[in-house]
Amino acid sequence: MNVSVMQRALGEQRDKLGDSVKRHYDLTPGSDGQVTVVGTMDEVTHSLWAKPFILIGQLFGALVPYRGQNVPVVAKNWTKQNNAKALFWHRTFSFQGKQPYIFESRMEHYKDDEIVEYVRFNLGVRMRLSEKDGSLVYKNVDYIWKLGKLTIHIPNWLTLGNADIIETPVSDTQFKMDFTMKHPLFGLMFRYRGSFTIE
């Protein structure tokens, strides 16, 4: 399909997104393209309950292991001509007094209104997408681990819980992002939120 990963999942809802959110994802797998956004995370935090999961997650190149405020971030999205499925991500977090932390992933359409964001070793989070008042809303369904032809589904409660991501347009080139993970027993596990500008 010669459309973006977002449009494959959202269908006609994609046209209702704010301009900055649309531009953030307006890349078509199977063609060469890139979008760069720069911004600041007002807050990056996690609970003590989340520590063991974050340490394990480092093996897969997932999640951000540090806490901080006013953290500069550069996020690059791109697509490749030789890959008709994936939208690639490269995020650089610059915490004060630490080496820049790199978080890489790829995003693919799964089925219907669902996408999967994969990190290292084909571990992914499956998320359902929707549009609300011009914002893009992600809600995770479960986690997926692809081992060759075998696909293992891992329920949210066995990990960090339920993830919600909201990208809210502010202007034609700016948007806000809020990412939270809450466990049904342990409460808030992980959060980051900030504002970004499309270069």
Quick structural overview:
This protein is mainly beta and 199 residues long. Helices cover 11% and strands 54% of the residues.
Record the SSE blueprint.
Elements: H1 5-10, H2 19-24, E1 33-46, H3 51-59, E2 68-79, E3 86-93, E4 101-111, E5 114-118, E6 123-132, E7 135-147, E8 150-154, E9 162-169, E10 174-183, E11 187-198
Antiparallel strand pairs: 1-2, 1-11, 2-3, 3-4, 4-5, 5-6, 6-7, 7-8, 7-9, 9-10, 10-11
Q: What coarse outline follows from CA principal-axis ratios? A: globular
Count of extended strands: 11
Mean pLDDT: 96
The multimeric state of the shown protein is: single chain
Radius of gyration: 16 Å
Termini, distance in Å? 27 Å
Instruction: Work out the helicity level.
Output: 10-25%
- Widest sheet, order of strands: 1-2-3-4-5-6-7-9-10-11
Provide the low-confidence segments as ranges.
Answer: none
Helix/strand class: mainly beta
Task: Please give the largest β-sheet.
Answer: 10 strands, antiparallel, barrel
Number of helices: 3
